[in-house]
Design a protein that fits this description.
408 residues, Rossmann fold, 2 domains
Length: 408
């Protein structure tokens, strides 16, 4: 029997265990009953494994996974090495353009992408449009003349079009990122917070929780994990005996070695865990009183939202989307190491204030739920399909339709 549902493709380069992958999996789940779906990616993946990682229920047999390459030593390096970031995006974008005629709508769940014609792009970080140098600086990512030249060369070699990229309807993960995208790339974006899978409420009393800090993030230099260690150093120097546990996937072996050197003199209170399961992460969120996210200019921070929902009070930099998760609460948002330590100690010493903050955070997290994301993503896709096939868009296409979609 012929399947007459609209055929949608979701395009995502690599499944490396981050928040962008959470968006992809929950987007698939939100659309699977209403649309025929394909997933275009670089290497074969096991959707059941990804379901287990993200808590989703994507019906794997109903999603046509289209890998561009087979797995081997070379393609694995392309898949996971950060130096291949732009190249793999270009390879995937060209593959999507070649297949564009097979789909009613193509959606990139990893940043800007020339999809061949107008589609949807979920922008976590504005990396790929031509005018992204200022964005890279704002996000504390390296930039250079050689990098910019190389990106232009790849655009030329792969036939990527900035004009077509700018015709996409842009969605992004926070008000902060939307502002960055507008300022640096002159792209309007609709804000749709990423889906957060909330842990079950903890059965521990507040007295039973660990009087310490949980930090969740890849062992990559951009995550500034050394700053979390420095903040806890300052907290301990103020007479508070607390510990720090950093958990995440290993990405940069050299950086991990540097952190291990720091740990040697702090072994009594500093612990690392790598490649933990979701159940282990949930267990830790339930156990710890406090969370710590050290990186400024984090575009959102799913782990921060998970901690807040689980009753683990997160402290975050004031600059970035993570401040939106805590409601821009000045008691939880810091502007430097000393400021962070002072605010942490103040809250730790005031148990009434601590519980008030915890209750407010838990209530706020409904805005970031996976159910909320799926409902809004379905509405957005339906509206964009209607606009696309209603032929309402000319020239700058989707960017003229943002006001009509503000109710999504």
């Amino acid at each position: 029997m012929c399947d007459r549902r609209p055929h949608l493709a979701i395009v995502h380069a690599a499944f490396l265990g981050g928040g962008a992958e959470a968006v992809t999996l929950w987007a698939l789940q939100s659309l699977q009953e209403r649309y025929k779906l394909s997933l275009i990616t670089l290497l074969p993946i096991d959707l059941e494994e990804e379901n287990a990682r993200y808590g989703t229920k994507v019906n794997a047999p109903d999603v046509g996974v289209i890998p561009i390459f087979r797995r081997n030593r070379i393609t694995e390096k392309l898949y996971s090495h950060t130096a291949m970031f732009t190249l793999r995006q270009q390879i995937l974008a060209r593959a999507a353009r070649k297949r564009r005629k097979n789909f009613d709508l193509v959606i990139s769940t990893f940043n800007e992408m020339d999809l061949g014609s107008a589609g949807i792009q979920y922008v976590h970080s504005p990396f790929f449009s031509t005018y992204n140098s200022e964005a890279r600086r704002a996000l504390n990512f390296p930039d250079s003349f050689g990098r910019r030249l190389g990106k232009k060369a790849l655009n030329f070699l792969f036939g990527a079009s900035e004009r077509r990229l700018r015709q996409n309807f842009s969605v992004t993960n926070s008000l902060w990122t939307a502002s960055l995208l507008k300022r640096t790339c002159n792209l309007d974006a609709h804000v749709l917070y990423p889906p957060v899978l909330f842990p079950e409420p903890s059965r521990l009393t507040q007295q039973q929780r660990i009087e310490g800090f949980l930090c969740v993030g890849r062992f990559g230099r951009d995550k500034r994990l050394e700053r979390a260690i420095e903040i806890v150093d300052c907290v301990r120097a103020r007479g508070t005996d607390v510990n720090l546990r950093i958990v995440g996937n290993k990405q940069d072996p050299g950086y991990l070695m540097e952190l291990e050197e720091m740990r040697k003199t702090r072994s009594l209170w500093l612990t690392f865990e790598q490649n933990i399961t979701r159940s282990r992460l949930t267990e830790l969120i339930r156990q710890y009183h406090f969370g710590l996210q050290p990186r400024e200019a984090e575009q959102f921070g799913i782990a921060v939202a998970e901690m807040a929902a689980g009753g683990c009070i997160p402290f975050v930099p004031v600059i970035g989307g993570q401040a939106e998760i805590v409601g821009n609460d000045p008691r939880l948002s810091f502007s430097g190491t000393e400021d962070a330590a002072a605010k942490i100690v103040r809250l730790m010493e005031n148990h009434e204030l601590r519980e008030e903050v915890r209750r407010n955070l838990v209530a706020r997290q409904l805005e970031f739920s996976a159910d909320s994301f799926m409902t809004k993503f379905r509405q957005l896709v339906g509206n964009v399909l209607s606009k696309l096939h209603g032929r309402c868009m000319q020239g700058n296409e989707f960017n003229t339709c943002h006001e009509e979609l503000e109710d999504v």
